[in-house]
Each structure stands twice: as structure tokens, then as C-alpha cells.
């Protein structure tokens, strides 16, 4: 097995073009588990950790451009005010040690339906910046997931960054697991109420072959934009529409029936928090 | 050739197979067996070490990725107050998780996150103790955090 160590982004792109069979390694918190368990041996590993450009984030036309090497720990510490949904989800990933290495780019590369960054990325309309020696493609995150653990990257492409729009308004993330730490989601849900244009974003995790939005639920809530007290009938309908958007399976972590039920509950609860925050004009 | 810098000492390493983890390199090549292997998949924290001062899992890190980084293991602590506090609070039974617990706690103190017991529990949640010494571990960390 070959070990390729890129020191600059340009070099990483050249190496990936020469060796499309190389598995990129960022934090390694997914890749290394597979290697240690000897699940399939990659022909080559492409270490991206020395690439300094990837560890930076910047503000670009209303978006935060998060480099592929920015860890969860840094998103929590540096971006929680501007990207509250993503920061909340990041806090639930693994453990402090995992968050010191793990990245959103790695979460996207693994494309597990259970990845915690996916619901907030979907809810806020994030865009994946994919790059190769041939150029750059901007892929809306909803088009990025193509199947269970499959994504839209070509074999010579790498993720350069994730662009997450900064939006005014409450964002919440909720996750069900068997305990409070180091746990893969049984199912998860993210919501964003965009106060500026009165639109709603949602993201469902671990309850379909890919992470997905609940499009009808978004439209329903935008048509019933928060004013006054939250009508329990609106909350209930929102929960039902979120649950209806899911297509879960039975697996070791939970049954399909449980996931559908839990999604409706999480959708109602996160809506309650978000509604309250909107009424209070700030964090609830 | 990879050079590992562990506890201030440089070790040249010939990694014919790049899959060698930092954990296996420490234990099997450098004979630094203080760092333990509990699960080899990131789930127990027994292999916690510091890399450039931040806590990471040696089992999920390739040795080859550590070229040019400063690694600190339990052997590199010079009678840290946490080690003494763990002994006085009886913060272990079999001791297998202890070096990982202590390395994690050393980082935790540096992160200034040991304000309350709930914080200590939350930010030590990546370190499991099969013997269930948790309340004594929290007591040891609390004491050192208070006197820091
Ligand atoms: C104990 C434990 C607990 C965990 N808990 C959680 C959890 O609670 N929630 C959660 O969502 N995940 C969890 N994970 C999984 C993992 O930590 C996350 O998916 C993390 O985001 C992966 O990021 P990474 O940088 O470590 O990725 P890596 O392991 O480096 O890479 C993951 C995948 O992405 C590819 N990749 C990496 N960088 C790029 C790039 N720049 N371009 C293209 N492809 C790339 C890799 O080839 C690989 O296929 C856990 C893992 C462990 C071991
Ligand atoms: S051995 Fe590394 S986390 Fe368990
Ligand atoms: S003391 Fe035995 S595992 Fe913690």
C-alpha cells in the first residue's frame, strides 16, 4: 500500500489525479476504523492533514467557507454564533478526542446516512466545493448524497470546502442515541427558521438511504410562519410531514416504526424551541 | 523514513507498511507501553495521547501522519498533579484505562472545561472505565482543577 503525503492543495489534487484509487485521509476517524478492522484494503492512502490551506475558514459572500481540514472542535469554538445548527450537531459527534480530529468534509466523504453534520447542512442549504485538476464544482449538499455511503464526487475529485450560508433565525439539532456520548444516531433532525425571507429548512438523518430534507414540511411551516403561540395542531402536522418524508429501515440501532415515531417527536420539539426563540427575538 | 517525536525524543521509524498506527508504533516499536489498546476503533479512549498539545486517539492516527508533530504520552508526564490525585482518590481498579484517562484529563485542564462536575463528565466522556471508577476519576480531576 502506498502512502501519499500532500503538503499543498495543488499537490493533493495532482496526487488524486495520478492515483484516483487513493483513499483520502483527513481526521481518519472513519478511515482508520476500517483499516484497523481490515475492511477492504485501499490501494493507497492520501494524507491531507499537512495541507495548511484546508485548516482555514473564511467569510465569502454571506457564506462561511469551511476548509476540509477544519475540525468539529474548531467549528464549536469559532463558528457557533454564525452557524448554530452545525455547531450543535458538532457537539454531539463522538468524544472530545474524535472532535479534535474529525471534520465535516470527512463526514461528507463517508456519506453515512447517520452522519450528524448532514441535517444542519441540509437545513441551511450548504454547498460542497469539490475540486480536481480539471476545475471546481459547486454541489448543493442535497445532490451530494447519492446512496447509502455514496456521494457525487468523481474519483479524481476532493472536497476543498463546505459553504454554509449564514442566516438570521433559530436553528436546532436533535439526535436520538442510546447514550449521551460516542453514539451513532438512531435518527436525527435539524431545523432552521430563516427570519429574513421567512423560509424553513429541514434535514433528516439516519431515516432513509441518504440524509434528506422534508420538503413538504418546510412548505407547510413557511405557510404558517410563527406568530403568537405555537398552535399544537401546526406542531403536530409539521411532525407528521417530517415523519412522512422519511423512509427508514429496521436495523440494530432501531426499528423503522420507532424511527418514524421519534422523528415526529423531534420535529415537534425542535420546532417548539425554534418558535420560542423567534418570539423572544434571540436564543431561547 | 518517518521521524516520531515522542516526549521530546526523536525516533526514526521505517514504516514499510503505512497502515501502522501511532498506537502500534508506540507500543511495539518504541516499547512505550504506557499507552493502552482497548478497542482499536476509537471508542474507549485508552490510547489517548497529546499531539501538539491536543488530545487524540493513537489508534485512529497513522504513525506516518505524525512526522513533524510533538507526541506526549503518559511516560512523558513528570509527576503531574493528576497522577498523584488519581492515586489518592483511588481513581482506578485494574488501571487499564488510567493512562488514557490521565492524558485526557491533562488536556481537559488545558481546555479550561473542568468548571463543574457535569463539565468534567461531559468532557471526559471519550474515556471509558470498565471498572466503573468514574466518581473517583471525577473527584481526582475536580481536585486538580480547583487547585490549578
Ligand atoms: C468512536 C467514534 C464515534 C463517532 N461518532 C460519530 C458521531 O457521533 N456522529 C458522526 O456523524 N460521526 C461519528 N463518527 C464518525 C466520524 O468521526 C465522522 O464521520 C467524521 O466526520 C469523519 O471525519 P474525518 O475527518 O475523521 O474523516 P476521515 O476518516 O479522514 O474520512 C472519512 C471519509 O471521507 C473521505 N474524505 C476525507 N477527506 C476528504 C476530502 N477532503 N475530499 C474527499 N473525500 C474525503 C475519506 O476518504 C473517507 O472515505 C464516529 C467515529 C468514531 C470512531
Ligand atoms: S484503543 Fe483507541 S480508542 Fe480504544
Ligand atoms: S480502572 Fe479498570 S478500566 Fe478503568
UniProtKB/TrEMBL annotation, chain A:
FAD-binding PCMH-type domain span: 1-169
GO molecular function: FAD binding; oxidoreductase activity
Alphabetized UniProt keyword annotations: FAD, Flavoprotein, Oxidoreductase
Keyword Nucleus on entry: no
UniProt xrefs under PROSITE patterns: FAD_PCMH
Protein name stated in the entry: Xanthine dehydrogenase family protein subunit M
SMART domains the record matches: CO_deh_flav_C
Region: Disordered, residue numbers: 97-117
Species in which this protein is naturally found: Herbidospora galbida
UniProtKB/TrEMBL annotation, chain B:
SUPFAM superfamilies listed in its UniProt record: 2Fe-2S ferredoxin-like, CO dehydrogenase ISP C-domain like
Any GO molecular function: oxidoreductase activity, acting on the aldehyde or oxo group of donors
PANTHER family, alphabetized: OXIDOREDUCTASE WITH IRON-SULFUR SUBUNIT, OXIDOREDUCTASE, IRON-SULPHUR BINDING SUBUNIT-RELATED-RELATED
Pfam families in alphabetical order: Fer2, Fer2_2
Protein known as: (2Fe-2S)-binding protein
UniProt entry tagged with the keyword GTP-binding: no
All copies of domain 2Fe-2S ferredoxin-type, residue ranges: 1-77
UniProtKB keywords: 2Fe-2S, Iron, Iron-sulfur, Metal-binding, Oxidoreductase
PROSITE patterns the UniProt entry points to: 2FE2S_FER_1, 2FE2S_FER_2
Pathway(s) per entry: Alkaloid degradation; nicotine degradation
Amino acid at each position: 500500500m502506498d502512502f501519499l503525503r500532500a503538503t499543498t492543495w495543488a499537490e493533493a489534487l495532482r496526487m488524486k489525479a495520478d492515483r484516483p484509487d487513493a483513499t483520502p485521509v483527513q481526521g481518519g476517524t472513519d478511515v482508520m476504523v476500517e483499516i484497523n478492522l481490515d475492511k477492504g484494503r485501499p490501494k493507497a492512502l492520501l494524507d491531507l492533514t499537512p495541507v495548511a490551506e484546508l485548516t482555514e475558514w473564511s467569510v465569502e459572500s454571506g457564506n462561511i467557507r469551511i476548509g476540509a481540514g477544519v475540525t468539529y472542535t474548531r467549528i464549536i469554538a469559532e463558528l457557533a454564533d454564525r452557524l448554530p445548527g452545525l455547531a450543535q450537531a458538532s457537539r454531539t459527534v463522538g468524544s472530545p478526542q474524535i472532535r479534535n480530529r474529525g471534520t465535516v468534509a470527512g463526514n461528507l466523504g463517508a456519506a453515512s446516512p447517520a452522519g450528524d453534520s448532514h441535517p444542519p447542512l441540509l437545513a441551511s442549504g450548504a454547498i460542497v466545493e469539490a475540486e480536481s485538476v480539471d476545475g471546481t464544482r459547486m454541489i448543493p449538499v442535497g445532490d451530494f448524497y447519492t446512496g447509502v455511503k455514496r456521494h457525487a464526487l468523481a474519483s479524481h475529485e476532493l472536497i476543498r470546502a463546505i459553504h454554509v450560508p449564514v442566516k438570521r433565525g433559530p436553528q436546532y439539532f436533535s439526535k436520538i442515541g442510546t447514550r449521551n456520548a460516542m453514539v451513532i444516531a438512531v435518527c436525527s433532525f435539524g431545523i432552521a427558521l430563516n427570519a429574513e425571507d421567512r423560509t424553513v429548512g429541514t434535514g433528516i438523518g439516519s431515516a432513509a438511504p441518504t440524509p434528506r430534507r422534508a420538503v413538504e414540511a418546510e412548505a407547510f411551516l413557511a405557510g404558517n410562519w410563527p406568530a403568537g403561540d405555537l398552535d399544537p395542531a401546526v406542531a403536530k402536522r409539521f411532525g407528521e410531514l417530517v415523519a412522512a418524508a422519511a423512509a427508514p429501515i429496521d436495523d440494530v440501532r432501531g426499528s423503522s416504526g420507532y424511527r418514524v415515531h421519534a422523528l415526529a417527536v423531534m420535529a415537534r420539539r425542535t420546532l417548539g424551541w425554534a418558535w420560542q426563540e423567534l418570539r423572544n427575538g434571540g436564543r431561547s | 523514513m518517518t521521524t516520531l517525536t515522542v516526549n521530546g525524543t526523536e525516533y526514526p521509524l521505517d514504516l514499510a507498511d503505512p497502515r501502522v498506527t501511532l498506537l502500534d508504533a508506540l507500543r511495539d516499536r518504541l516499547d512505550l507501553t504506557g499507552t493502552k489498546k482497548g478497542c482499536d476503533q476509537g471508542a474507549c479512549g485508552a490510547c489517548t495521547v497529546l499531539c501538539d498539545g491536543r488530545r487524540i486517539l493513537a489508534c485512529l492516527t497513522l504513525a506516518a501522519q505524525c512526522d513533524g508533530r510533538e507526541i506526549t504520552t503518559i511516560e512523558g508526564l513528570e509527576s503531574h498533579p493528576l497522577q498523584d490525585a488519581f492515586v489518592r482518590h483511588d481513581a482506578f481498579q485494574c488501571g487499564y484505562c488510567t493512562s488514557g484517562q490521565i492524558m485526557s484529563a491533562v488536556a481537559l485542564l488545558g481546555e479550561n472545561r473542568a468548571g463543574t462536575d457535569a463539565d468534567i463528565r461531559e468532557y471526559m466522556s471519550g474515556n471509558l472505565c470498565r471498572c466503573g471508577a468514574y466518581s473517583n476519576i471525577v473527584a481526582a480531576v475536580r481536585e486538580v482543577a480547583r487547585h490549578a
